[in-house]
């Protein structure tokens, strides 16, 4: 039996910084931190849809425990001012869509790669003893598989490569694909290397398909929420590719629990890179998700098909054994359970009854 590592987070009167803290994952992390008594400073440029809504939600729940600063992670002076007075950093600010990176690769690089480097340098200059956790992505692994290593079985693609029988581990070679994959991969490696070269207490979280409340999904990013939003609105869902592509999905509560444990146990996690996703047990195809939504809503949403998009992986499933061992953590919420909770929240946001309310 694995023993639980001691909690090493040292409480301080200083707040914790969450960059991108009004986004989907950032707002849930900020809420969890404030809920356990921490003060939180959020740095967010407030450009993404839903940011203002999440900001109001956080302030209504936590009041002065949450401070929101509108600004950019590329602003050196602002970062210096903030980093001098915080006890840790959750760095989630970034450009999050492959499609946007294709439209403007330079801006994508400036936000994701240069912005992250500036967060690291501001930490090194002003507060080098604090933990810094970074939101990376499974896109750093690129295509991973050759066409003959993937076969279709039923409604899913299946990986035939023995090395990935338990999913993709952190030892898989990086193969950056798309400008987004390159910018996040560069940032990922900077964060990892600053632990080795400069001794910063950094952790990299390579995330796969996190979903849940506070996610205002779009066609470009946040596909599970986007599918549900379209279904609730009675609008068609466009699937790029054939829909048999597979992802491991992870509900936001499980993701936040992993982030906080990695932060609390920084003595054991510093310098580590973790794949964070739902793992093999929570792997679903897009077609599977459409069927789950049909079961939940009582009728199948309309679907349309279009060409595959650059950088889209036919199969990606995280091997979560490393993070499970390090944090005594495992995903607890199944895709069906998580989808039900997300549907209730989205219905409330869209002014529509959830499936459960419609049949009450």
Q: Give the low-confidence spans.
A: 1-11
Query: What order do the strands of the largest sheet run in, or round the barrel if closed?
Result: 3-2-1-4-5-8-13
Termini Cα gap:
44 Å
Number of domains: 1
The proportion of residues forming helix, as a percent range, comes to 40-55%
* Shape label: globular
Q: What fraction strand?
A: 15-25%
Structural class: alpha/beta
Classified by CATH, the class is Alpha Beta
Kindly report the name of the CATH homologous superfamily: NAD(P)-binding Rossmann-like Domain
- For the CA atoms, what is the radius of gyration? 20 Å
β-strand number: 16
In short:
The protein is α/β, with parallel strands linked by helices and 360 residues long. Helix content is 41%, strand content 18%.
Question: Could you characterize what this model shows?
Answer:
The chain is an alpha/beta fold and 360 residues long. It has one domain (16-358): 3-Layer(aba) Sandwich (Rossmann fold). Helices cover 41% and strands 18% of the residues. The protein has 13 helices and 16 strands. It has helices spanning 24-35, 51-62, 76-83, 98-103, 105-126, 178-197, 223-233, 252-264, 266-269, 286-297, 321-327, 335-350, 355-358, and strands at 16-19, 40-44, 66-70, 89-91, 131-137, 150-153, 156-159, 201-207, 210-211, 237-240, 246-248, 250-251, 272-276, 283-285, 303-306, 315-316. The strands form five sheets. The protein has a seven-stranded parallel sheet with strand order 3-2-1-4-5-8-13, sandwiched between helices. Strands 14-11-16 form a three-stranded mixed sheet. The protein is globular. The chain starts with 15 loop residues before the first strand and ends with a helix. Mean pLDDT is 93; it is low at 1-11.
